[in-house]
Specification:
The protein is mostly helical. The protein has helices at 4-22, 32-35, 39-60, 68-81, 90-108, 117-137, 139-158, 186-193, 200-204, 216-243, 253-267, 294-302, 306-310, 330-343, 347-361; strands spanning 167-169, 174-176, 183-185.
Length: 364
């Protein structure tokens, strides 16, 4: 089956088509008799207006041909690609396409079961790119606030007008005169997010290495922590299902490197320590402040182990046993230990059985 995120993504595309169709004004007027010589132009424009979101998604994000998602969506593509009849009204030609949309939306909700490896890997890569994009442009909002304030200051100077110090209100999103619990000094904001005065050479370089403000470390931490957590707690298990192995057997140096980076962001304030030992994403030396450069982001995309994850050959790994961090009733503990000894099995083996039986009894 398709991964749930992909199903939801395609459902949004189909909803957008339906919404556009509902807003189509007076479709009955779109006929060769009414439009006359303009109909040759108007009919393709109507089809493009209604179905462009689906067509663009189908051409750029087409599901794997062996997937349920492809099976459900392909009839829509065929319906839209059918030759147009310029002797007929638009509405009867659009109706079959909309019927295919409605049928697909119904079938999307019925898709169930594990996704294949290709689908999981595609969704991991989509999440990586969107997460990184959001993190890399998120600072632009705060940068615009600073730019607007600087422009207002320069305008006041040019007009020989007095402009007092301002605060930015995080509640109203406006510059204000008086401080409050929801304000921050615009000068403080400027100092924290502005990289400083750039040299001419740096301004000519669209990705200057030396002008990243320290606050960019925070945005990098957000995408690394979020993306690695999704991998470790979600996608890794889905790949294990697809490859019919244990999640501990799904390993990748690429994701191991991101794990080290996550540890440094969370536990070492974004100062490189563990990630100095990275094997693939060798971006920092020990003690570096972890703000990725443009070249780092390019490598992040190009080094993504798509083929490795699709064709994974699981190999057994030695898993270190872990203690159960819990306290039990003393009498139950005594009986448990006595029973294990009487049966001639180790406490570890007995605990494994007890945990497995408890989970089985509560499955579903």
């Amino acid at each position: 089956m398709a991964i749930r995120a992909a199903v939801e993504r395609w459902d949004k595309v189909l909803i957008a088509v339906e919404t556009t169709r509902e807003s189509w004004l007076i479709p009955e007027a779109m006929t060769p008799e009414v439009r006359k010589h303009q109909y040759q132009r108007d009919l393709p424009m109507i089809i493009e207006t209604l179905f462009s979101q689906f067509v663009h998604a189908w051409n750029t994000d087409r599901p794997d041909e062996d997937s349920d998602l492809h099976r459900v969506l392909e009839p829509i593509a065929h319906a839209i690609a059918a030759p147009l009849d310029y002797g007929r009204a638009a509405l009867p030609q659009v109706d079959p396409m909309m019927a295919a949309i409605a049928e697909a939306r119904s079938e999307l909700q019925q898709i169930s079961g594990p996704a294949n490896a290709a689908e999981v890997v595609d969704d991991i890569e989509h999440l990586l790119k969107v997460t990184v994009l959001v993190a890399r442009v998120s600072h632009q909002g705060s940068t615009k606030i600073v730019d607007d304030e600087l422009q207002a200051r320069f305008d006041a100077i040019n007009k020989n007008e007095l402009r007092g110090a301002k605060y930015f209100d995080l509640h109203t999103f406006q510059a204000v005169e008086q401080p409050s619990k929801t304000t921050i000094s615009l000068q403080v904001l400027l100092s924290m997010i502005d990289p400083g005065i750039a040299t001419l050479a740096e301004r000519m370089n669209p990705f200057p290495d030396e002008t990243y403000p320290p606050i960019m470390k925070q945005f990098a931490a957000q995408w690394v922590v979020n993306f690695y957590t999704e991998w470790d707690e979600h996608f890794r298990h889905q790949l294990a299902l697809a490859h019919e192995c244990k999640s501990t057997e799904v390993r990748s140096d690429y994701f191991a490197d991101l794990g080290k980076m996550r540890h440094d962001y969370v536990h070492n304030r974004g100062i490189c320590r563990n990630s100095a030992r990275n094997k693939v994403l060798k971006w920092y030396r020990k003690g570096d402040i972890m703000i990725p450069k443009h070249a780092n982001y390019r490598q992040l995309m190009e080094a993504f182990p798509s083929e490795e994850l699709r064709t994974l050959k699981p190999s057994p790994v030695t898993v270190q046993r872990q203690p159960v961090k819990a306290n039990a009733d003393p009498e139950l503990t005594r009986q448990f230990l006595v029973k294990a000894e009487n049966l001639g099995i180790t406490k570890d083996a007995a605990l494994d059985q007890a945990l497995a039986n408890w989970l089985t009894a509560r499955s579903g």
